Amino acid sequence: MANHKIEIRRRNVEKILQAAEQVFADKGYAATSMGDIAERAQLPRSNLHYYFSTKDDLYRAVLQDLLDVWKQDALCFEHFDDPRVVLTSYIRAKMGHSRSRPLGSKIWAEEMLHGAPLLAPSLDEILVPWAQLKQAKIRSWVEDGRILPVEPSALLYMIWAATQHYADFGFQVTLLNDGEALSDMAFEQAVQTVTGVILRGIGLEP
């Protein structure tokens, strides 16, 4: 019985987060209401308030869920030491989620563009230490002569900009592709191109 309740809760929370991600991306934080999200999730509004007391709580949960996904993408920094393997894996994972979860990336970009009004108090704890660990790894590769000298944070910014472009500027990508979404083959070519440019820029061959 307990397991059944846990599963119901998991499914409802997942459904709410997916709906919230869609509505926040479509309408923006200020113009979104809990009623809008309940309607998109096809759940009573009372269900939303049962799991998330306020719109702020739900908004933060959407962004935290996305950040958790991005942290999973970066586990290769911990599991591997070869810079080619790490960066190839990381870029592919980031590109994949830019394609599968473009709306979440847009919400994150909007929050950052406005100075992270809702997330700022927690970013020092949830984002800064995480990024510093990745920078330390890159710095160690430079010190060991395994990659060309590069400023670690700049390399991360380049990767984020290149990979998240396919989410944040998805309309532009489609527009410049004769109005068609990238095919699987075209997207794979994009992954390989981004990977190759990044790796060659630090002295590695793809």
UniProtKB/TrEMBL annotation:
The keyword GTP-binding does not apply. Signal peptide: none annotated. Keywords: DNA-binding. InterPro entries: HTH-type_TetR-like_transc_reg (IPR050109), HTH_TetR (IPR001647), Tscrpt_reg_YcdC_C (IPR013573). Residues 10-70 form the HTH tetR-type domain. It comes from the Bacteria. Residues 33-52 bind DNA. Pfam families: TetR_C_3, TetR_N. This is TetR/AcrR family transcriptional regulator. It comes from Pseudomonas maumuensis.
